Amino acid sequence: MTTFAWLGLIVVVAIAAFFLGSMITKKQLKHDDLEQQVQSAKHELEQYRQEVADHLASTKKLMTKMQDSYSQLLIHVEETDKALLNAKPAMPDEPFFSKETTEQLQASLQSRPERRREAKNDTLSAQPSDYAEGETGIFSGESSEVEQSKAS
Fold first, then answer.
1. How far, in Å, are 17, 111, 143 from residue 139 at the CA level?
2. What one-character-per-residue DSSP string does 91-107 give?
3. Handedness of CA 112, 116, 122, 127 (dihedral sign)
4. CB-based contact 64:58 (threshold 8 Å)
């Protein structure tokens, strides 16, 4: 073969090598880019998992604290209930009124039902205090005469 043929062959091989290298390089760059995206996604997933774990841990602490508070409240209510139910007055009950006043009140209460019965019988037979005998107001005969004089 001649030099010209060798030269053509070298040029063709160089062009083919150039395109083949660029394709391999592009694939390698895409592969590196995808690998970087995978690493980024894994990092984000791990970060999200850590945030969820932290959130669950703080929720657990709050729930434990709330449960302790509820238990303390329940114990307090039970103790207060026992104290109120079992509490006995230390001093004897003092009367509100003196002995003489109490006796007078009892005496007046005993005499009251009789007065009520008597007053009840009186009120049943008596007329109401606002009752007027005879014709009064617009039902009286005088008002009709007044109306007739006003009409004429």
1. 133, 45, 7
2. SPPPPSS-HHHHHHHHH
3. positive
4. no
